[in-house]
Amino acid sequence: ATYGEGDPTDNAAEFYQMISDQDLDLTNLNYCVFGLGNSTYEHYNSTGRFVNKRLLELGGNRILPLGEGDDDSTLDNDIIEWKEQLWPKVCTLFGLDGSDQDINMRQYNLEELEDPDMSKVFTGEVTRLNSYLAEKQRPPYEPKNPFMSHMLVNRELHKGGDRNCMHIEFDITDSRIRYDAGDHVAVYPCNDQKLVEDLCVLLDKKPDTVFRLTAIDSYASKKSPFPCPTTYRTALTYYVDITSCPKMHVLKEFLPYTHSEEDKTKLELMTKTTMEGKAAYQEYVVKNFRTVNHILQDLPSCRPPLDYLLELLPRLQVRYYSISSSSKAHATTVHVTAVVLQYETPTGRVNKGVATNWLLPQVPSDDKHYSVPLFVRKSQFRLPIKSEVPIIMIGPGTGIAPFRGFLQERDVAAKKGATVGKTVLYFGCRRKAEDYLYQEELESYVASGLLTVSARESRGD
Ligand SMILES: Cc1cc2nc3c(=O)[nH]c(=O)nc-3n(C[C@H](O)[C@H](O)[C@H](O)COP(=O)(O)OP(=O)(O)OC[C@H]3O[C@@H](n4cnc5c(N)ncnc54)[C@H](O)[C@@H]3O)c2cc1C
Ligand SMILES: Cc1cc2nc3c(=O)[nH]c(=O)nc-3n(C[C@H](O)[C@H](O)[C@H](O)COP(=O)(O)O)c2cc1C
Prior knowledge:
By secondary structure, the chain is α+β, with helices and mostly antiparallel strands.
């Protein structure tokens, strides 16, 4: 995939560097590339395109033209179509018979534990058992070992209107976490308990049953799809994504567990890779923002086993937030500015963003304490090193977040007597009386001569 400004992902950086710099002999390599990108970016799919070209230059044998998935439109279809061409090529290359359809798609065996040792049961940890307990927390903190941060502040930034925008401050004291203005903080969220329990009811499972999924193939690199043993409740709360639209291949796996002809016909149609099938999937799932709960509610005879669903659903992903503070001004806290996501779907349901709606009610007080697993990710988005360089920042809505960090940094520099170049911010909001974020702070920077700000309304009178 392409990230940043035409860059490879963090976990591909080393590979990218190696094929760029070294004159490798890849004459024995058969390869093909599918790139993930978004066509609204200037450097569309540049990583996939580069790898595709470079492996050929190094002597590789390209077995299939480059596939490109566009996250702005039809990414899922793009990969399905590309895969349809891929498998026949692979089978030909290895002399395999690709016509055998009777393959067991299940990768894991289910075992429900009658009398589990609860001290060995995962409760939502990303990898290491009990790693969220204060006494077991150990730096360095990174994606597989997040820091359990105490939330110090969670206050509403909007002064009116029906939306919420949170200003959150996370404590990073004694964590050895360092950050620069412009970096991102990644938060591990939880799914809504109501959705989790509804899903258990729909699929007739007791949420607190302890189970384990074990790879059928003893050579599999992943022994289980997420940390096990755990409970159905924990798996659905912390480990799998239950709120995105399920992919076509997931729905296809529901077919053998669908009994009525009516439901079967619907599912069969929308899991076909024909134009008609794709259109049906788009209409039923994507346009109506149907989640797995919605599909099971609307297809009452479709009841896949919960453990199979857990195997099929993607892992719940972290949510990134631009850090809206500077460590020069706040060395022991990381600030986040997050708008709460909620929207109505054409079927009349209200879909709520996982992370933002999980964070919203977590308002700390003397007797209420909240902890959030997080880590900091470095970014390329930086202030010019010299403070005298003038800057123009354009950030409507929560787009102001990284610039708040930049402003704090320049303010610290100015107070230390450094020359600070002209600092201009263009901010946009719906109505200044409602959602002019950090208005007082910005006005104080204007008053001190640090900032020139231009704030505009899109829905003002
Ligand atoms: C590098 C980076 C920095 C970011 N910084 C910030 C930040 O500073 N502040 C901030 O608030 N967010 C920021 N985000 C976005 C943030 O990571 C989350 O995506 C956002 O908070 C929503 O998360 P959620 O879990 O609440 O929603 P999710 O459960 O992830 O739901 C989001 C999904 O809902 C769907 N959706 C959203 N709106 C609608 C709609 N109107 N109609 C239909 N479907 C819709 C889309 O499919 C979308 O992908 C950043 C993202 C990245 C990648
Ligand atoms: C911060 C950020 C930067 C991105 N930069 C690019 C880019 O330069 N070019 C591009 O084609 N896509 C870019 N994308 C889009 C991603 O490549 C696209 O969403 C892709 O589907 C991500 O795949 P993944 O979710 O499997 O990592 C960017 C996405 C993000 C969040």
